[in-house]
Design a protein that fits this description.
The structure holds 3 protein chains of 3 kinds. Chain A is mainly alpha-helical. Chain A has one domain (about 1-65). Helices cover about 75% and strands about 0% of the residues of chain A. Chain B has a domain at about 110-270: MetI-like (MetI-like fold). A two-stranded antiparallel sheet of chain B has the order 1-2. Chain B has a two-stranded antiparallel sheet with strand order 3-4. The longest helix of chain B is centred in the middle third of the chain and has 32 residues, at about 110-140. Chain B is globular and about 85 Å long. Chain C is mainly alpha-helical. Chain C has 2 domains: about 1-60, no CATH class; about 80-320, MetI-like fold, CATH 1.10.3720.10. Chain C has helices at about 1-15, 20-25, 30-60, 80-85, 90-120, 125-140, 140-150, 160-170, 185-210, 215-220, 225-255, 260-265, 275-285, 290-320. In chain C, helix 3 (about 30-60) packs antiparallel against helix 14 and helix 6 (about 125-140) packs across helix 9. Chain C is globular. Classes of the chains: A mainly alpha, B mainly alpha, C mainly alpha. Chains in contact: A-C, B-C. Chains B and C meet through helix 2, helix 7, helix 8, helix 9 and helix 10 of B and helix 1, helix 2, helix 3, helix 5 and helix 6 of C. Chain B: It is found in: Cell membrane. Chain B: Keywords: Cell membrane, Membrane, Sugar transport, Transmembrane, Transmembrane helix, Transport. Chain B: Its main location: membrane.
Chain lengths: ~70, ~325, ~325
């Protein structure tokens, strides 16, 4: 179902990026994981300070890319 | 796959392996039960026995914990006690032997009643709404279905303290603070997400042909839902209801932050059962025992569905 | 997806193929209207009890509002609270305390839980009964569990101290599980492991049981050693399930409040102050509503992000 609706857009942009769900979702997962580690690690105050924005970016990215075709 | 065919399989573990595995698991199970058994035993101890050193494994059972749980008592001088008419009941006698008299009932019964009302009220609502929504998600094409389902699930995962801040303010505005209705609505909202996911799993397993046949026979969609789907989903609905009941029964964070008396349930109440000089452990243990018994019964009833419940219906065996 | 399509189309098709009298009750309401009739109430409830408060929290996190002074003037402070929290050493410390708790409970629960599941999967006589017995702790109320473990942890009379003393010869009154800075972080780990190992065990057991026998039979034919079978069949095939359990325990313990609040209340000092306790202290004791709303949003977003990963893991397990 979603394949059909999103297919033309994907083919249009596929010259620049292959907008497939899998790799993007993995990237978002890594970003969220990284953010959580930054939030809770005891080593760097700078990493802690930027943890939230990392998690936020990862979560927002996840919400968007989960609508890409499989 | 029956046990018989596995016994003949090349990969079946040998008898010795099985016995060793069984022994380790049983030892673990017994060790892990000790804390709970200890609490149940403590509820039948006298206050001095409960804090004796070394801990008493063999003791004379006493109902003092239960008496203390259900009553409030005042200490009296021996002269005062001598003037009183002799005790008429066994619990009067027990309390007198500690130089005290019963002043009245404690708050435990209202708290228990609150727990029951809030747990059953929210369970009923959550299962009612959850069944409808699960059927909707299972059978119709809903726009943004996956997003809605994820949104519903994510509401259950939210940290309760974070949710409690705005709920506290909201309830203060509309006068629901420390009311049973407020707690029922809140627990319904938390439980409905589990109910939707679990019941969707159960309803997905019911073949559509039942309703389609019913509708060809002239039933409307709603009648088909009631006559063909609900009876088939009965086991699933019951299991879901027990999960919701357990959650509402056990919930603590919202209860401790949003209730203080009128709507307080058992979990925030139990830690504050105090006697003279600190916690009255036999009474606390007695309350814990009475509180836990329904859970033990539910666990046994649910054992076949536990896996489904803790994975939001994803794993079904 | 295709399933849904056919089902919503089927009544229409049936309606078209049947005489008007029979078709009317099926067509009475459009499918879309019926779908919203079923789903609407739940969505409305969640909007009222979850989404509206969430939006309110976001707004509060940009203000200096204090819940104990409802009539004071409310000023917008922009992103100040977020800057403060993300530069606040105390909150960072609470995050590290939470990390200690999360990491150790996950390690212990996964090792024990998987081990137990592996043993139970040997299907000894009565394994069903003993599995149910093992599951009891996780069904109890975390608050009640926290409360009665304070009793077991009493330095003089507590059973835990006595048993440790009996097994190791240390004087049971010489250490305090809850009162000492060194031991209290472990006290909460022990209780959580006691309570939630069964959870991990149950999910791992499902994972082990999802591995079809023929794979082992094939390995047996290839003369693979049991050791090799474990590392190249059992563990990889159970891994999605282990990940599922780990993620869920991680999320749950990241926001752990009940048990810790009753065991230690964050003490002694702030040695066991996990982030939920910080949040409670800020929101309901210091009444810094704006600040705590910002912290709440940070926790929300983190849990929301992890929930995305969790649902991905759920779907992977569901395909089996």
């Amino acid at each position: 179902m979603s394949d059909q609706t999103a297919a033309p857009r994907a083919s249009l942009l596929s010259r620049f990026l292959r907008l497939r769900r899998g790799p993007w979702e993995n990237l978002a997962t890594i970003l969220i994981g990284l953010g959580v580690v930054m939030l809770m690690q005891p080593f760097s105050a700078t990493a802690y300070a930027y943890s939230f924005i990392t998690i936020l970016a990862g979560t927002a990215m996840f919400a968007i890319v989960s609508h890409f075709p499989e | 796959m029956s046990g018989l065919s596995q016994a003949h399989s090349v990969v079946a573990p040998s008898t010795a392996t099985r016995r060793i595995a069984g022994a380790i698991v049983i030892v673990y199970a017994l060790v892990t039960l000790i804390p709970l058994l200890w609490i149940i035993a403590t509820s039948f101890k006298t206050p001095p026995d409960s804090i004796a050193y070394p801990p008493k494994i063999v003791f004379t059972p006493s109902l003092e914990g239960y008496v203390n749980l259900f009553t409030t008592r005042t200490r009296q001088s021996p002269e005062m006690l001598a003037q009183l008419p002799p005790p008429t009941t066994w619990y009067d006698k027990l309390v007198r032997s500690r130089n005290m008299v019963i002043a009245g009932p404690s708050n435990v019964i209202p708290r228990f009643v609150n727990s029951i009302i809030i747990a059953f009220g929210s369970t009923f609502l959550a299962v009612f709404l959850g069944t409808l929504a699960a059927y909707g998600f299972s059978r119709f094409r809903v726009p943004l279905k996956d997003d809605l389902l994820f949104f519903i699930l994510s509401t259950r995962m939210m940290p309760p303290i974070a949710v409690a801040i705005p709920i506290y303010l909201m309830y203060r505005e509309i006068g629901l603070t420390d009311t049973k209705l407020g707690m029922i609505l809140l627990y319904t909202a938390v439980n409905v997400s589990l109910a939707v996911w679990l019941l969707k799993g159960f309803i997905d397993e019911i073949p559509r042909e039942y309703e389609e046949a019913a509708m060809i026979d002239g039933y409307t969609r709603l009648q088909a839902f009631r006559k063909a789907v609900l009876p088939q989903a009965a086991t699933g609905i019951a299991a879901t209801a027990i999960f919701c009941l357990i959650f509402a029964w056990n919930e603590y964070a919202f209860a401790v932050l949003l209730t203080s008396g009128n709507a307080q349930t058992m979990p925030p109440f139990i830690p504050f059962i105090i006697g003279e000089g600190g916690q009255d452990w036999p009474a606390v243990a007695a309350a814990t025992t009475l509180f836990v018994i329904p859970i033990l019964v539910f666990t046994i009833l649910l054992r076949k569905h536990l896996l489904r419940g803790i994975t939001f219906g994803a794993v079904r065996k | 997806m295709t399933e849904t399509t056919t089902s919503s189309a089927l009544p229409e098709k049936l309606a078209g193929a049947t005489p008007e009298v029979i078709a009317r009750p099926i067509r009475g309401l459009s499918d879309k209207a019926i779908a919203w009739f079923f789903i609407g109430p739940t969505i409305l409830l969640l909007l009222a009890i979850n989404i509206f408060p969430l939006i309110w929290t976001i707004w509060l996190s940009f203000t200096n509002y204090r819940a104990n002074r409802p009539n004071a003037e409310v000023k917008m402070v922009g992103l100040d609270w977020y800057h403060r929290i993300l530069g606040d050493g105390d909150v960072w410390l609470a995050m590290q305390t939470t990390a200690h708790f999360v990491v150790w409970t996950i390690i212990i629960e996964t090792v024990l839980g998987f081990g137990l599941a592996w043993l139970i999967d040997k299907k000894f006589r009565g394994h069903g009964l003993w599995t149910t017995v093992i599951l009891i702790p996780m069904m109890l109320s975390p608050a009640v569990v926290g409360n009665f473990w304070t009793f077991l942890y009493q330095p003089q009379s507590g059973l835990f101290n006595y048993v440790v003393g009996f097994l190791t010869g240390i004087d049971p009154s010489s250490f305090q599980m809850l009162g000492s800075v060194r031991l209290s972080p472990w006290a909460i780990v022990i209780v959580d492991a006691w309570m939630w190992t069964p959870y991990v065990m149950l999910i791992c057991l499902a994972g082990l049981r999802s591995i079809p026998d023929y794979i082992y039979e094939a390995a047996e034919v290839d003369r693979a050693s049991p050791w090799r079978q474990f590392w190249s069949i059992t563990l990889p095939m159970a891994l999605p399930f282990i990940m599922l359990a780990v993620l869920f325990r991680g999320i749950e313990n990241f926001k752990m409040f009940d048990m810790v609040n009753l065991l230690t209340g964050g003490g002694p000092g702030s040695t066991t102050e996990v982030v939920s306790i910080t949040l409670k202290r800020q929101a309901f004791e210091s009444w810094r509503t704006g600040y705590s709303s910002a912290l709440a949003i940070i926790l929300f977003v983190t849990v929301f992000g992890l929930a995305n990963i969790y649902v991905k893991a759920l779907n992977r397990v569901k395909q089996r």
